[in-house]
Amino acid sequence: MFDSIPVSTTSTDSYTITVGENLMEEVAETLASRFSRSKLFMIIDEKVYRNHSSYIESELEMKFSRITKYVVPSGESNKSMEQFSRIVDFILENGVERSTSLLAVGGGVVGDLAGFVAASVLRGIPLIHLPTTLLAMVDSSIGGKTGVNHEVGKNLIGAFYQPKAVFADVTFLETLPRQEWVNGMSEILKYAMIESPDLFTQLKELTQHNEFASPKEWIPIIKQSADIKVDIVNKDVKESGIREFLNFGHTFAHVIERKGEYGHCSHGEAVFAGMFGAVEASNRTGASISTNDLEYFKPLYNLNLEKIGTDTKELTQLMLRDKKVKDQTIRLILLEEMGKPVVKSFEETKLVEASWNYLISEFT
Ligand SMILES: NC(=O)c1ccc[n+]([C@@H]2O[C@H](COP(=O)([O-])OP(=O)(O)OC[C@H]3O[C@@H](n4cnc5c(N)ncnc54)[C@H](O)[C@@H]3O)[C@@H](O)[C@H]2O)c1
Fold it and tell me: How far is CA 351 from CA 94, 278, 344, 358, in A?
């Protein structure tokens, strides 16, 4: 069972996102029919390889004479120039032509890293994403942002590079740890806030009694979420306008992550908390939005943010270090009403400090 979403990135360039279960046969067939059959590079997350190697390889081996794989150790620290350089060496030493395709199998870490490799080797070889986390399926595999982290900050080196296809196969989600479901859910909640409040009802059904429904029941919501991201990205491929809406809650989240030195909570948890700050700031600028729909999901997060402290002035100042800051003014994505995002700049910081106060009171 699967469903396809067409994505146009320019008038001449387009690709398809396929969402479904048991897609490996379809993946192998598509790759073999469109790209060189003599060789395939596969860059794969170590945990995904451990859990799913036979499922992946049995289908690919039927179509390709040679599959050259590189297993990436799990974790954000591997989204690095060191790992990038090792993979490029590996590919060049193994022989590569412009028509050799690269299959990226993993979450956002492997997708971003392998995507940047595909963009760079021979100035671009065909890239196919096989996202294996909920977050990667609804967010990171879509939109063409690739790259690695630098010690100065996250995602500071990279390129916009569009894949030739994306296959979101929920079969992989069978082994996804609970924490990673929660992380992906934050981005779906974000889509609910900025675009489609009906997603709240679906998410409630999929997380009844604090349990996650079986992966195949998630297919419709993954498709709808991917559709929303595609729609926003298509209108703003290089992130100069409305793509900023996807940062709803994220300016607060980046500070939460940085203040806790990235150890105390995950990005998804920080985004969840960040959305409370963004709702409060929205209400203080004239909106009237309830946090009830977000509150409902709090038990799944079990989040305590004592570590970020209570110095709202400092937290607000830290927002000015966000890489998306312009002219030293805090820019926040807020809501005029549910599903209606807007960008607002703040020279006066009192309102932002008050929003931090509210966020802290919700999570301590
Ligand atoms: N390019 C973009 O537009 C974009 C958007 C959002 C986030 N990102 C990036 O994505 C990254 C986060 O992605 P993520 O949340 O997928 O993290 P991740 O890639 O680190 O995966 C999370 C964990 O899940 C494991 N895992 C992956 N698939 C699994 C599976 N099917 N079964 C069991 N374990 C599995 C991984 O080994 C890892 O431990 C960050 O680096 C972030 O910057 C990029």
Answer: 56, 11, 12, 11
